[in-house]
Design brief:
The chain is 39% helix and 16% strand. It has 465 residues and is an alpha/beta fold. Bound molecules: 4'-deoxy-4'-aminopyridoxal-5'-phosphate.
């Protein structure tokens, strides 16, 4: 089927006007490498404000995706926009590789003060979650003079070489196309709902913890203690919002202390207030050695940061953490304004409160619909596990529900190890009426899915997770 015919089918399939978007989709397909995305809906976003976005044809949507958990403070948060404007009127950027600049110093000072741990800390910068994970791996290896990095199945850490190699959710067959780094070892993450041990981790968190920690210990033995660091998301995001038992994360801290490796808290998706704490690790009362932040940190501008114990961060020599644009003045100013917005607009408490409300509404839906197997989350990082026959993941079902929700005016996608989890990640300051409308849309989309009203053909157009 030619490209035009394919897009023509898509135009007919969608119950809304998407002509202008399709012109952009056609060029995207022609000129952009297919590996840059896992596309969902055929729309180009042209405008955004708060918790809403608009496409090229003027269709309005409530945004439960927030550009992949980026707009914690809402689209075009006024503080962020103001900070960007003020900065661009003075200076776009000047490299801190050779000279000095205030915004990135001020941001570093702020990051040091708001991350867990009372010890001396230092900061390095990048632009994406991926590169900051690489930097964390570098400092852990340089500090310990060891090679091996422990990571978890189901984790997503990025696509640069280090972060890709440490990513557990991408198929081995895909990773090996580009020959990832060696010396990364994987262990199972304790998923309370669906795990290989068949343990109900909600009922028996201690049993799940001890089984999972046992595997970590065995892997440490297997690596003959050549471990530089353990890299983990305190709550796995792209795996489908997997919240481990509290004692598990505490156990990782103990193992790091016993064996002298660096505990790397990867908060690219969970940070900046998303989970109802500034950092998700605070739910577990654990202090990491190194913390990685990106995505929401810049309020929509690209910036990432690694914040770690000074002696670890300074164990690696220049220019190992150099990037010409690192700590970019516009992004750093936006990041400072983002943190200020989270603090001054009380967004952490709002996320916690709205998260509870949303979970309650999904639990009510769960009573009505057997296809909702599990509802889990902290703050506004929430996953709704769509199943058939018991706990069997229903990826296609989840995609169909997302498609219909999109047609009705809500951007919500699926993710997870099995691609069957609805990803609920609105801005932390989303108004209640938008939440109610979005949840009504999801509920009616589930009903229409159960009534067989969503055609199978839509699946062909959703690459998805
Ligand atoms: N870590 C986590 C936990 C993520 O969710 C992501 C992005 N999904 C990344 C790292 C990679 O971030 P980026 O795409 O900005 O490189």
């Amino acid at each position: 089927m030619g490209l035009d015919e394919d897009l023509e089918n898509l135009r007919k399939l969608a119950s809304k006007r998407i002509d202008k978007s399709l012109e952009i989709v056609a060029k995207d397909r022609k000129y952009l490498a297919k590996a840059i995305g896992l596309k969902y809906f055929p729309i180009a976003i042209t405008k955004a404000e708060g918790s809403k976005v608009w496409d090229a044809d003027g269709n309005e949507y409530i945004d439960f995706l927030t550009s992949a958990a980026v707009y914690n403070v809402g689209h075009r948060n006024p503080r962020v926009v103001k900070a960007i404007r003020e900065q661009i009127d003075k200076l776009l950027n000047y490299t801190v590789v050779y000279l000095y600049m205030e915004p990135c110093v001020r941001l570093a000072e702020k990051l040091v003060s708001i991350t867990p741990g009372k010890f001396n800390k230092k900061v390095s910068y990048g632009f994406s979650g991926s590169d900051s994970v690489d930097s964390a791996i570098k400092v852990a290896r340089a500090y310990t003079k060891k090679r091996c990095i422990l990571s978890f199945y189901g984790s997503y850490h990025g696509t640069t070489y280090g972060s890709l190699s440490a990513t557990g959710i991408i198929d081995e067959s895909i990773k090996t196309q580009v020959f990832p780094l060696a010396d990364i070892k994987f262990v199972d993450f304790p998923d309370p709902y669906r795990n290989k041990w068949g343990i109900d981790g909600y009922e028996h968190p201690d049993e799940l913890t001890s089984r999972a920690l046992e595997e970590v210990k065995n892997k440490i033995k297997e690596c003959t203690s050549d471990i530089a660091g353990l890299l983990f998301e305190p709550i796995q995001g792209d795996a489908g919002v997997i919240i481990p038992p509290e004692e598990f994360i505490k156990g990782l801290r103990e193992l790091a202390d016993t064996h002298g490796f660096v505990l790397i808290d990867e908060e690219v998706q969970t940070g900046v207030g998303r989970t109802g704490k500034f950092w998700a690790i605070e739910h577990f009362d654990v202090v990491p050695d190194v913390l990685v932040s990106a995505k929401a940190l810049g309020g929509g501008m690209p910036i990432s940061a690694v914040v770690g114990r000074s002696e670890i961060m300074d164990s690696v020599s220049p220019p190992m953490l150099v990037f010409t644009h690192a700590g970019h003045a516009v992004s750093a100013s936006a990041a400072l304004a983002t943190i200020e917005a989270v603090e001054d607009e009380n967004l952490i408490a709002k996320a916690a409160e709205m998260g509870e409300y949303i979970i309650k509404r999904f639990r009510e839906m769960q009573d009505k619909f057997d296809i909702i197997g599990d509802v889990r989350g902290k703050g506004l990082l929430i996953g709704v596990d769509i199943v058939k026959r018991g706990k069997e993941p229903d990826r296609k079902g989840a995609l169909k529900i997302c498609w219909r929700a999109w047609e009705k005016g809500l951007i919500v996608i699926s993710f997870g190890r099995n691609g069957n989890v609805l990803r609920i990640a609105p801005p932390l300051n989303i108004p209640r009426e938008d939440v109610d409308r979005a949840l009504d849309i999801i509920e009616s989309s589930i009903k229409e899915f159960l009534e067989g009203k969503i055609p199978d053909d839509v699946i062909d157009y959703l690459r998805g997770w």
